Description:
- The protein is of the alpha+beta class.
- Helix content is 41%, strand content 10%.
- The protein has four helices and two strands; from the N terminus they run ααβαβα.
- A two-stranded parallel ribbon has the order 1-2.
- The longest helix is centred in the last third of the chain and has 15 residues.
Amino acid sequence: MLPPIRVRLRAPSRISWLRAMTPIEPIRFIGHAAGTALLLQNGRSDNLVPPADAEALHAAAPSVSTIRWYDGGHGLSRQAAGGGLAWLHEQLGLDALR
């Protein structure tokens, strides 16, 4: 498994990357979703969003959030995609997937 991108970058590039990403990091905005049901899906072997970062986001998420972990990396599996669709159907009150 490769280390996170920010670890592989040389110092000047890493600093630039961090400056560019900081304003759009989800942790800065998730608090605005108070009272909203969210689905947070994460890969246990994600090389871009380490589990500790995902857990910090989960802690900041509204209490009505659903958190699911999957075996795999940043590109989640078909199982995760199917789980996401099923969750969305449930939230919207639609019939089961056909």
